[in-house]
Amino acid sequence: MEPIVEIRGVAKSFGAVPVLHGVDLAILPGEIIGLVGENGAGKSTLMNVLSGAFPPSAGEIAFDGKVRALGSVREGQALGIRFVHQELSTAGALSVAENIFLGDYRAGTGGFLSFRRLDAAARALLARVGLGHIDPRTPLGALRSGEQQLVELAKAVAVPPHLLILDEPTSSLTPAEGERLFALIHELAGQGVGIVFITHRLEEALGHCDRIVVLRDGRVIVDRAAAGLTRDELILHMTGRPATFAWRDHGAVSDTVRLRVEGLADAGHLAGIDLAARGGEIVGLFGLVGAGRTEFLETLYGFRPARAGRVSVDGVPLALGDVRAAVAAGLFMLPEGRKTRGILPTHSIRGNISVSGLAGLTRGGFVDRAAERAATDRLAASLSIRMADIRQPVTALSGGNQQKALFARALLAAPKVLLLDEPTHGVDVGAKAEIYEIIRDLAARGTTVVVASSELPEILAIADRCVVFAGGRAVADLPRAGMTEAAILARAFAVQPDRAEVAHG
């Protein structure tokens, strides 16, 4: 079978920094390739070269047997290459239909746009990606991030692709949306479309891909059939070292309640949440999308106004709805969405770390730069943030190292209670293992950590206890001994959460 694409000895450097080293890869029609590797391994760079966004520094690429030097993404699209990036390239103010056909509005006679034809075509594509209930005239910005991701997929298949590249496509999808995505992927593969699937979720790669290609430091380490590969083998190939994600008793949980929450409710999501967490305890919050985990953390921290409830830290009542009061009481939160709600993209790594502790670093109304340098350098070293220089922009870091910079920011605030929402979202397995160690170390030093995660293996790996959310309620509070995948999922899928019994450990 003639390959759709043959990548031969492709190298890519940015200035004096080499990113890819002589990569060879062939993609066959109807083949689903899982492309995996740590952040910074070169996955996105390779696909950007393939799609025409970057020219290679060396090597060549043959499309349908003919060597071509693509000069732009548009030239790649003309060959049938579609690249759905992890970072959405959508226009929130335009309608769903306008986003799907952006750049090709299919104007009718005389060049006038027919919204009726546009909407009809958009409805067919939305149904194909599982969004048949969405009105094509809805502003895209009104949709959830997962729905926007699926609109991007609809846009990619509006013209049948020859090669489809998907970068972390399930990162913001619900389980049902993910199932629909994989159904479409297999449908397209059955029609002869070649598919490259970039993911940090190794179970997805092993369960849905025909071949697995592992990149490490810009080189292909493994290129073999997915059948027979195990998750542990993949981690070893990706990182060069084994990574274990088994829970360990850090032995630091005290008998004293550090955080007490009673009847916490907001205007539309939460219905009276009770929670008590002890010093040094890691409490996991699990639930399906929309279950209320994020809303609970944001209401607790003051991002969202509370309608009712009481919160205390070390027995001292906390003023609700006031982030400053929460920080003063010893709470600190790392929200979901590192790029949109976490990092300060125009600031340096040092500036991103020190922003939480400027009050303590100020002398006579001016920031003590020597103290700032000492504090940030110490934290960056202790968390092993991989960087060229702490003065470089934080955006120059990989996703995992950006996340560690945010943890350094939290550590500088010296919190009694650390609230984490999806702390390893979009990071590779190596960075994930390092972040787990950071969390365990914080707990070992007495910090109470409350972690909301949509990844059940993550909860099982780090939490001393699991509080399960469903329908805006805490429907179960499972002790470590009762934390099994089946037990947690059974509560998370509770049909009538108002009648569910709370199991206290």
Describe the overall structure.
The protein has 505 residues and is an alpha/beta fold. It is built from 17 helices and 22 strands. The protein has a six-stranded mixed sheet with strand order 6-7-8-3-9-10, sandwiched between helices. Strand 7 (163-167), helix 6 and strand 8 (194-198) form a beta-alpha-beta unit. The termini are far apart. Mean pLDDT is 87; it is low at 495-505.
Helix and strand topology:
Elements: E1 5-14, E2 17-27, E3 32-36, H1 43-51, E4 58-63, E5 66-67, H2 73-78, E6 81-84, H3 96-100, H4 115-128, H5 145-156, E7 163-167, H6 175-190, E8 194-198, H7 202-208, E9 211-216, E10 219-225, H8 231-239, E11 257-265, E12 273-278, E13 282-286, H9 293-301, E14 308-313, E15 316-317, H10 323-329, E16 331-334, H11 338-342, H12 349-354, E17 362-363, E18 366-367, H13 369-382, H14 399-412, E19 417-421, H15 429-444, E20 448-452, H16 456-462, E21 465-470, E22 473-479, H17 485-492
Parallel strand pairs: 3-8, 3-9, 6-7, 7-8, 13-20, 13-21, 16-19, 19-20
Antiparallel strand pairs: 1-2, 1-4, 4-5, 9-10, 11-12, 11-14, 14-15, 17-18, 21-22
Helix pairs in contact: 4-5, 13-14, 14-15
Please provide a brief summary of the model.
This protein is α/β, with parallel strands linked by helices.
Please report the distance between the alpha carbons of the first and last residues: 58 Å
Number of helices: 17
Q: Which range best describes the helical content: under 10%, 10-25%, 25-40%, 40-55%, 55-70% or over 70%?
A: 25-40%
- Helix/strand structural class: alpha/beta
Reported for the largest beta sheet, the result is: 6 strands, mixed
Number of strands: 22
Average pLDDT reading = 87
